[in-house]
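discrete fold record:
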Amino acid sequence: MSVFPELRHWVVGFCFCMAIGCETQQSQVSIGSEVPDGPVKILTGSEESPSTFHQAVLRDDDKLVLVDFWATWCPPCQQMIPEVESVKATWKEQLEVVKLDVDDNPELSVHFNVESIPTVLLVRNGRILQRVEGFTTADEFSEIIRSLN
């Protein structure tokens, strides 16, 4: 009998979470759906400023918006922070980056069917153009952004 059976289960769960992302709640939205509202933070340089989902995402200037669904307790989300900051620096004129904490926005997470984090939506004019789940590098994001421009 092991002294720490719970620890072994936690370690296995942690490794699984690192490999595929962290599980969250379900939702019912697909690409092409209208976007609801809720509190978010807009990444400007290396700082974040508060806003609402509608203000940040429902734009009429054809600017592409990267919406990062994340959580402070999610290791892959933390690892992706410099990747997202790099994408913002590379595409600063063409891209707005919006960070959405799933713990602060459970209704938006459910609405967008965010079952694991990190999940990223690329949105233009309030329409979801692309969905990316799991850890993604800056180069992978740049390739996707080029394909959408």
User: Anything to note?
Assistant: The two ends are 58 Å apart (CA to CA). The chain is about 35% helix and 30% strand.
